[in-house]
Amino acid sequence: MLQQWAADALKTYVPLEADQIMGLLEIPPSAQMGDIAFPCFMLAKQFRKAPQEVAKDIAGSFSHPAITAEAAGPYINLKFDRAHYIPLIMDELATENIPDTGKGRKIVIDMSSPNIAKPFGIGHLRSTVIGAAIYNMYKLAGYDVVSVNHLGDWGTQFGKQIAAYKRWGDDNAISEDPIGESLKLYVRFHEEAAEDETLEPEAREWFRKLEAGDEEARRLWAFFVEVSLKEFNRMYKRLNVSFDYTLGESFYNDKMQPVVESLKEKGLLEESDGALVVRLDDEGMPPCLILKKDGTTIYPTRDLATAIYRHDVMEGERLLYVVGNEQKLHFQQVFSVLRKMGMDWADSCIHVSFGLMKFEGKKMSTRRGKIVVLETVLDEAVARALAIINEKNPDLENKEQVANAVGIGAIIFGDLKNHRLNEVDFSLEEALSFEGETGPYVQYTYARTQSVLTKGAAMAGTAGITANSALPGSDVLGDSGWELLKLLTRFQEQLQRGLRNHEPSVLARYALDVAQSFNQFYNKERIVTDEDQVRSARLNLTRLAGLSLSRTMQLLGIGTPERM
């Protein structure tokens, strides 16, 4: 918005197209310097002058009825006439439509993907909430988006699970706590396997039976899948996350042999110590294992079949895999094999990786049983949020509902505010604070905007400002209000930046910036003032700030209670 107006004003004086100018515009480090800055470095060669001289020449000849230009070293700083632009910006924001840049383009997102027969740990949170936010962002931009929960319901770990159950399983204990008991069995398997050399071959044999369709193996597998899905779906409901498809690894069982045959036909398979691999030496990677010695499939085989299905059947133009950093080599190998198979669309497969999540300094491992169960963390977060509400606002209606939104929102925001590639050391106490860079801080700010609007509605003359209602020379918002208004114009820019990088933290940080900017405005300016025109403009700005916060948090999968 402001960038477009600035580019249109500059294009008469700069030998560049408006789009090129927009790509160069910057926000000055200080509001006193101006509203938009244009760097002149790339014009120096064309003008055969130092950038400082170019800036001085352009600023000296610049003329616009509502924008002034001033040279500051190699930059041209532009200042917008507030009386002219405040009503224009407000009208634009009131009718803002997000361009459907993705119309007709289909994205398939692989996200969450927990393992069957394991508790839903807090380690699964990152893939789930990062994937859900990216899904929402693409949806808003007009894309046809499909989310897939690629359940870990196949593989050698099932052989281990069945072997452990057959040796030590207690049907009564499993009936009472199927997931908890399954985890205990899995952990015991790894503990005992360190001493008992017969366990690993036994597990491999059970998985071979499972792949061969053995009746007992299939029955036990189906039981573990059923009880796990019930557990997972409860967690997804609490996180307000849903999927278009839940397709486990087992779904692709009948789709793997054609992949193996295709690799053979193309002469890509080689034998290595009895196993079949695709050599990737030319790309500086170790061989990609396709079939193990015993003839059973392995992850790359299934992921090749999965990618082909998502491209050919689901018709995904771009395939995203929201999976941790530790799988980087795996996906590099899979995408490389796809390219060798002649799949030119392999370059549209993207591993949206993320860093490890620790819980208060502790790394989690299912094999050793050191897993922080997500439900326990959610319950604790909601309980703490309720305690804070009881202390600060004991008469609040719907306290449990608000505590749920605040507690769970705190956990989601506590993850998404971090750059996804960074390691996250999650602290519940920090995430639940109503001060600082937290979800509750943003939610509380939204509730504050609604409180101000309720108070303002009780007074006359609260209609929104129009293009004719700001008197020439008037500054109805004050400096802090003007800074907030400018920030609100940047939502689409932030959305596009987040999409380019598959980075929800861009929007989380934007929500924090808007919340901080609104609170500065709230503290510095009297919003519900006696002057009709000033009150009208400031209430409208408050309304726009609330809408921006609500929309941004909704994209992140977080609720915004009206009162807190």
From TrEMBL:
Residues 3-80 form the Arginyl tRNA synthetase N-terminal domain. It comes from Paenibacillus azoreducens. A motif ('HIGH' region) lies at residues 114-124. This is Arginine--tRNA ligase. Transmembrane segments: none annotated. Its EC number is 6.1.1.19. NCBIfam families: argS. Keywords: Aminoacyl-tRNA synthetase, ATP-binding, Cytoplasm, Ligase, Nucleotide-binding, Protein biosynthesis. It is an enzyme of class 6 (ligase). One of its GO terms (cellular component) is cytoplasm. InterPro entries: Arg-tRNA-ligase (IPR001278), Arg-tRNA-synth_N (IPR005148), Arg-tRNA-synth_N_sf (IPR036695), ArgRS_core (IPR035684), DALR_anticod-bd (IPR008909), Rossmann-like_a/b/a_fold (IPR014729), tRNAsynth_Ia_anticodon-bd (IPR009080). GO terms for molecular function: arginine-tRNA ligase activity; ATP binding. GO terms for biological process: arginyl-tRNA aminoacylation. Residues 442-564 form the DALR anticodon binding domain. It comes from the Bacteria.
